Amino acid sequence: MPDTPHPAAAIHPEARIGHVHLKVADLDRALAFWRDVIGLEVQQVMAGQAAFLSAGGYHHHIALNTWESAGGPPPPRGTTGLYHVALVYPDRPALAAALYRVLQAGVPLEGASDHGVSEAIYLRDPDGNGVELYRDRPRIEWPRDEAGRLRMTNRRFDLEALLAELPRAG
Fold this sequence. Notes:
Blueprint: E1 20-23, H1 27-37, E2 41-46, E3 50-54, E4 62-65, E5 85-89, H2 92-104, E6 109-114, E7 118-124, E8 130-136, E9 155-156, H3 159-163
Parallel strand pairs: 1-4, 5-8
Antiparallel strand pairs: 2-3, 3-4, 6-7, 6-9, 7-8
């Protein structure tokens, strides 16, 4: 057998990660977070058991459903499952606005990191699902070692400096 991988073994470089479906205990409570705090737009609600939300009118980026989870508890820590869902913002002002909405809603942050390639804020939705709000730096700015491999970091992310980039009213 040759040591060279078959060309079909790698995913196409333009492939994207599609939508995420989250099992939630209470659809109204989940909508209050994903719609009212995060700012996603409801595209459709199905029989009070599922909702499809997106940015910019796409059919859905996030779906919330109670099909197998109505009234259920969050999964316990230390078990397998989704670590977090990540929402990518186009720039620092957009990420600052997202952080502002989260803070105004009183949602506690779990952390914030500068990864060199991105700046990220971590929190949880009402069902305990991990949520990452982040923006990528331009690829030309990504830190690399002498061989050209990525050298991601885990530095402190200055949230006050981020909030200073909020657009000023009027």
